Please model this.
Amino acid sequence: MQLNDLRPAEGAKKARKRVGRGNSSGHGTTAGRGQNGQLSRAGGGKGSGFEGGQQPLAMRLPKLPGFRNINRVEYAPVNVARLDGLFADGDIVDGAALVEKGVIKSELVPVKVLGDGELTKKLTVKVDKVSASAKAKIEAAGGKVDLPC
Model:
């Protein structure tokens, strides 16, 4: 047996109905649509969301309230307690260092340091944002905060 000998089983393939190809085909003139009415017309029938006169689902559901700011910046939060546990005294905390320690997934993610926990090590923090309480704790521990312009 060769590949060119393979055939579908008898009766497995059914020819498609060719409508509108003359009356002798049995599906001519009205092409199986009947005489008149909405469904006999081109483009006829109910819309895809029509539910038999019932209020459609898209109109029953509540719409989203409020305003969605497309320019919103989502910061990855990092607490000072986490920095205290991950970094040694005198280290520089920046995007690359945080990716290396597995705190964030990419250097492109903006980072904000928050003030939860205690900081005992002197760190130089170079991230996108620092909360006021975190800045106070970093500077109280003898560290420095370098924010971008």
